[in-house]
Amino acid sequence: MRRTLVTAFISIAGSNVAVAMLGAVMTPILVRILGPEGYGTYATVMSVFALLMIVVSSGVDSGTRKYLAENRDDPDWHDNVFGYYFRIATVLALAASALLLVAAQVGIIDATLGEEYAVFFFLLSIVTIMAQFRAYTHRSLLGLKLEPISEPLFVAQKVFFFIFAISLAYLGYGVTGVLLGHIIADALTASIGFAFLSRHISLSAVLERTPEEFPGGSCSTSTTSRSSTSSSSRRCTTSTS
After folding, report:
1. 207 or 14, higher pLDDT
2. 151 C-beta neighbours (distance < 10 Å), count
3. Given this model, what pLDDT does residue 69 score?
4. Cis before residue 148, ω within 30 degrees of 0?
5. Which regions of the chain does DSSP assign to beta strands (E)?
6. Which end of the chain offers a freer environment for a tag, N or C, measured as fewer CB atoms within 10 Å?
7. Are the beta carbons of 138 and 193 closer than 8 angstroms?
């Protein structure tokens, strides 16, 4: 399907509506299965997670989408952008995960929240890494203007979470099961996202050294007309020194 501003808007808006509806259905079920106390524990853990992800994704989100959306004369431009920001995203996620592990290991979590939270923060350290990779694939797909792929995947992640979290919680695993649901759902979504990205970007770029002049260059706005789409796009040229 040809991409236009209208189709992009419909994809994003539709996915947001679908996710909101899934949340409206899932939350009462989780509360019923976990109970008020269990759900309160889960909400506390996820509040810490939400604050942590603000720091972990800082700069990566905007940078990935901005630079992947640009058209440059460099044929390796998208590969370099993807690899560069992937490494940053990975380092930030690992650092945050290590911070959670240390906090749980040395007793900070026990002293502030209670002993029962320690195991949840061990799992949260894994959730942080998986969530970062899942979010990174979503940002990359958006940057490449692949909303028809990124937005269904956004919804699919919520569906996966719904299935695994509810099932594990119902089987008696409680908050641990819900956190495992996050890990499984994010891992599945990230894997599918990377598979789609591999059709447009060389994933081996994550292991390659970024050119010294990256990002470099200057951008200008030009109008291009192609067989598949006609749109205004940013055209960038790489400067040399």
Report:
1. 207
2. 23
3. 87
4. no
5. 71-72, 218-225, 230-237
6. C
7. yes
